Each structure stands twice: as C-alpha cells, then as structure tokens.
Amino acid sequence: MWVFALRGTERLFNFVRLIIIARILSPNDFGLIGIALLTMATLETFTRTGFKSALIQKKEEIRPYLDSAWTVSIIRGITLFAILWFIAPYAAIFFDSPQAKSIIQVIGFSFLLQAFTNIGVIYFQKELEFNKQFIYQFTGTIADFVVAVSAAVILRNVWALVYGLLAGNTTRLIISYFIHPYKPHLSSDLGKVKELWGFGKWLLGSSILIFLSTQGDDAFVGKFLGVAMLGFYQMAYRISNMPATEITHAISQVTFPAYSKLQDDISKLRESYLKVLQVTAFLSFPIAGLIFVLAPDFTRIFLGEKWMLAVPAMQVLVFTGLVRSIAATTGPVIHAVGTPKKETRWQVVRLFVMVVLIYPCTIKWGILGASIAVFLSILVSTVGFSSTVIIITKCGIKNFSKMIVFPLVNGIIMALLIFALKNSGSINGILGFFSLVAVGILAYLSIAYFFDRYFNYRVHPLLKEIRHFMGISNQR
Predict the structure, then answer these.
(1) By C-alpha distance, which of 56, 52, 51, 46 is closest to 80?
(2) Which pick of 163, 220, 290, 475 has the fewest CB atoms within 10 Å?
C-alpha cells in the first residue's frame, strides 16, 4: 500500500510537471537533458556495486556491513563526479551538442549527493518499513517538482530540469539523516567489502547488460538521428512504459525483500510469486491497452501538436512496457534465491538481439524502428526469464500462462471497444478523453468479473486478500 501510494503520488507530480514543462520547453531541451542523464547513467551502471541488493538479500543482521558499504559508496561517488566532469566535453562532441557540456558537469553533483546519503535507509526496504520510505522519497519529489516548475517558468530552458533534479537529491540527503537513527562512519574493513562483492558482482554484470539494452537505443538515436529526435523518442518511451515503471517497480521493491525471507520455502515462494504475477498482469494490460489506443489523443491534448511525431514510437513501445512488466516480476525471485547469474545470462541474449536489430531498423524507420528493435529484444529475453522462474518456483507453464492469458484477452476486448467508440466520432476533447478512459476501465473490470465467475480466474479473492492485508497494515 505504501509503495503504491509513493509511486502514485510521485507519478502524479511528475506527470503534472511533465505537462507543464513540455509546453514551455522544446524537444531539443529534453534531448539535452537526455544526453546528460545518459552520460551519467553510463558511468553509474558500469561502476554499480550491487551492495544494497546484497544487504537486502542477506539473512543475518547487516549492521556490521553498513559502514563498509557507505565508505565504498563515498569513494565511488567522488570518483564518478571527477570522471564525469572531465569527460563532459567529449560526450558533447560525440552527440554534436556543445550545450550539453555544462549540463553534464553540473548534473554530476548528483553522484556526490547520493554517495553521502545515510546508508541506514536500506532498512526501510529490508524490513518492509515502506511508510518511512514514502517520507524519504516523496520529500525529494516535492522539492524536484517545485524547483523544476518554478525554474521552467522563470528561465524557460533546460536548466530547470537540472536544478529540479539536484534539489530532489539534496533534500533526500538531508532527510536521510533525520529519518533513520543510524550514523555511518568510514571503514577500512575489506573483508566485509569482499563478502558483499561476491553477490554484487553478478548484479553489476546484469546491470551493465540491462543498461546497454535499455540505454543503447537512446545513444543510437541521439547519435544518428539528432538531439531533437532523441527528445521525441525519450518522451515516447517515458509515457508508453508506464506499466513497467509505475507498477512493477513498486511491486519489486516489496517482493525482493519478501522473497528473500521465503527463499528456503519453495511452496510459499511459488504461491507468492503467482499472486504477484496475477496482480501485475491484471494491472498492466489495461494500462497498456489504454495508452496504445489513446496515445494520439493524449499527445494532442496534453503535450501539444509539436509532440505528435512521437506517437507511432509510443504505440510500439507500449508493448515493450507491457512485456517488461512481466519480466520485472522474475528478477526479484532470481535474486532472492541467490542466483543472479541466471538473470545475467538472459540479459546477454537480450543485448545480442538489440545489437543485431538496432542499426538496420533505426536507419530504415527512424525512432519507430528503434522502438521495434527494443520490443523484440525484451520479448526474447522475457521468455528466458520466465522459464527460469518457472523452474525455480516449480509453478508449471500452465499456471504461469493462466495468469497472463485472461488479462491479455480482456485487454484486447477493452482496446477494441475504445477504438470503436473513437471512430464513431461522438467523443472528443478532454472530457471525451476521460470518458473513454472511464469506459475502458469499466469494461475491463466487467470482463474480469465474467472470467472470474465462469473460468476460475480467481482475481476477486486475490483482490479481497489484498484489501484485507491493507486493512491490517492500516491498523498497525
């Protein structure tokens, strides 16, 4: 409940911010910040330690490891800040965008702010104290929103996004020391570092592969199609991937520490995973269907005509987001049982497919082609992730497929209904847009009730169980 509340409020503020800033700034501005974030993400990914995940996965008390993890975090943050400052001119040359140099250098301060954050906040995830996680994260979101929107109105340029990002990270740094009592100290215990690295090294490998698969397309589009097209592409990706980023990210924050506590009980792990898969699919398919059908209307009404070029890519990438939402349910299981190596192998396959397809598709069809390459790469790897989890949990292909087939059929019916209503020409404007959303949700829930009643879909008992759990949480 707390994680979904956090993601929901964060997305609401970010959505409002996006609508406001998208009407003030140009696609080129979004492309510039995209270059800076891509450069930063490249360094961050290739130096990721995986220590936080290792701490969450550990069965024993993690306090003896915290100072070592915090010390490594500081050393890494300072190093990355220095590297980013010096490579900024070369990144700007690579993307043929001189303006990006100063943006990259300033945004690098985020490395320092994140490095010095109190390591004690890791307990919020490990011990499922997500009410405290909500406060810690959301204060930064508020700061980002206020500063970014105010700066956009005043400056009317890309620096509004930069200042907003730094304001959010600064606020979280300060709050982290007020919200958790742990006071970290520098440590030279290499033994603890080595032990954490034993688990983290596989997460590093997997993270690098994921980065190359998810950010390689941005680099390719920015290099070969230009900064403005990168702005269009990133906007399309951000909106279309809502099922993966807004639902599964929230769920995985809970499931990874929860699965870690169940790693020795396969029957409970299997039962829990199937429930999580069912809820994820139940929520992701209608969102994906709504985005696919209403993408042109949403873009025209909320973002403006200047963003319409992003619509075809958005409609392809929505399938990427949908498949990612299913794939995202598998990672916490694989990590929780201590076998991240298996995920890394399938990330290699995903990257291979991306490398083979990205150039010919992008050169021929532009950002639409890049979208197709991304979708096919995640589709192939998700088959591998899913088969791995089926083996780990021993849930069987039939039980796994059942959780996906019903919402898939339901989502298709819902999308066809909305498409028919759109073509009738009787619903237009903002009111019409929200009317179509409401009709789609009502249709989806009605069909789900039919499946539940006559085909043993069993989503209603699951939702009742979730409501009961939320009621207990509220009482606590």
Answers:
(1) 46
(2) 475
Per-residue HEC secondary structure of 112-126 comes to HHHHCCCHHHHHHHH
Q: Which helix (H) or strand (E) holds 243?
A: none
Give the 3-state DSSP-derived string for 5-67, with helices as H, strands as E and coil as C.
Answer: HHHHHHHHHHHHHHHHHHHHCCHHHHHHHHHHHHHHHHHHHHCCCCHHHHHHHCCCCCHHHHH
What are 299's two structure tokens?
């873009």
Per-domain residue ranges for the chain? Answer: 1-188, 206-476
pLDDT of 206: 66
Residue predicted with more confidence, 405 or 25:
405
For 377-401, give one letter per residue: b (16+ CB within 10 A) or e: bbbbbbebbbebbbebbebeeebbe
What is the distance in angstroms between the CA of the first residue and the CA of the last residue of the chain? 13
* Angle, CA of 460, 246 and 228, to the nearest 5°: 145
Please give the model's pTM, rounded to 2 decimal places. 0.68
Q: Distance between CA 305 and CA 75 in Å, rounded?
A: 46
Residues 6+ apart with CB under 8 A from 254: 3, 128, 130
CA distance to 173, 200, 279, per residue, from 282 (Å): 36, 32, 5
Closest among 39, 41, 46, 47 to 85, alpha carbons compared: 39
